[in-house]
TrEMBL record:
A GO term from the CC aspect: nucleus
Gene3D superfamilies for the chain: 2.60.200.20, 3.10.50.40
Ranges annotated as biased composition (Low complexity): 1-10, 144-155
Domain FHA: 58-110
Keywords: Isomerase, Rotamase
Identification of the protein by name: Peptidyl-prolyl cis-trans isomerase
All residue ranges annotated as the PpiC domain in the record: 157-268
Enzyme class: isomerase
GO molecular function ontology, one term from the record: peptidyl-prolyl cis-trans isomerase activity
EC number: 5.2.1.8
UniProt source species: Dictyostelium discoideum (Social amoeba)
Length: 268
């Protein structure tokens, strides 16, 4: 799952022979109290997730000696950045560890060694890597609510209700639909179409329901993409993980499953 880039202009300039000092955890760091995680997006597709709830900090980089999240890209430093939770402030901070090519939060370059706030749904990336990380699950990290955090129902609903818009491609497990008997489009083309639909929805030029009704390759298209309420274990894992992480009214990024690629709108 590497994202190598052979462009020499993006290669890091650090001395690979120098020893890598371990990240020194700040005294103010503490362990998150909820199931926070990172969604990993590559080329517009949700490809993985990383649980960051078990440690005070998470280090990103190319070296397995010091990094817990590895990025196989020449522009990423061996020890590039660290994401740290500050319990007293109820906030995550991303710290660029004087990387060779920099760190971006919501497309803005951050200052080295300066803790930068990262909130729910903030996106960050390292160097020229095509992978983006999105912070999820922070809504229950407030220490003041710890007395009630023992209730699992407070952290996640038992069921969710969603719409979705599915675009199949030639690699889908069943490359046909009510719209096309044989689907030959590439996965890249399917993703491009979904990105266009999502941009149209976000801009307000069309509703999710209308676009799903006209363009979804799922039989739910006749209901505007509406899906009956479902619980964990009823959908493909990437789909349900995304659906349960969304807020009511929120539209997801692209979700990749065996059926094809989707966007999801949570209704309830």
């Amino acid at each position: 799952m590497g994202d190598n880039n052979n462009n020499n202009n993006n290669e890091i300039r650090e001395d690979e022979n120098e020893p890598i000092p371990p990240f020194k955890c700040p005294e103010w760091a503490s362990k998150p109290i909820s199931n926070v995680y990172l969604e990993i997006i590559k080329n517009g597709v949700n490809i993985d997730r990383v649980d960051i709830s078990k440690d005070k900090f998470t280090v990103f980089g190319r070296s397995s000696e010091v990094a817990s999240v590895l990025l196989d890209h020449p522009s990423v430093s061996r020890r590039h950045a660290a994401l740290v939770y500050h319990g007293a402030n109820n906030r995550f901070y991303l710290i660029d560890l004087q990387s060779a090519t920099g760190t971006q939060v919501n497309d803005e370059q951050v200052k080295p060694l300066t803790p930068t706030t990262v909130k729910e749904n903030f996106t960050f990336k390292f160097g020229s890597s095509s992978k983006h990380f999105i912070l999820k699950g922070t809504v229950n990290t407030n220490p003041s609510s710890s007395s009630s955090s023992s209730s699992s129902s407070s952290s996640e609903p038992k069921t969710v209700t969603c719409r979705h818009l599915l675009v199949k491609h030639q690699g889908s497990r069943n490359p046909s639909s009510w719209r096309e008997s044989k689907i030959t489009r590439t996965k890249e083309r399917a993703i491009a179409k979904l990105n266009e639909y999502r941009a149209t929805i976000i801009s307000g030029s069309a509703t999710f329901e209308d676009l799903a009704h006209k363009n979804s390759d799922c039989s739910s298209a006749k209901r505007g993409g509406y899906l009956d309420p479902f619980k964990r274990g009823q959908m493909q894992r990437p789909f349900e993980d995304c659906a349960f992480s969304l807020k009511v009214g929120e539209v997801s990024g692209i979700v990749d499953t065996d059926s094809g690629v989707h966007i999801i709108e949570r209704l309830a």
